[in-house]
Amino acid sequence: MKVELIRAWPRRFETMVLELDEGACVADALRAAGWAGTPGSDYAVFGVVADGSTMLRDGDRVELLRPLLADPKEARRRRAASRGR
pTM for this one? Predict the structure, then answer.
């Protein structure tokens, strides 16, 4: 089965298409890509949070998620407060 792996940074991204055996999981895909052990990463399959044991299907897209630098709600509150609202 074919799966696509994607990891992104603010101004660039890396993508890789892999051919894996049926029954492979996220951890298997990461090992095959050489991305196993990427520090601070969470994973998603088509935007749905997953973990290393999540089973993959043909055509899945595995995304490595970066940690948030700021809480989105808190950032909105700060912007609204600076505008005087």
Answer: 0.75
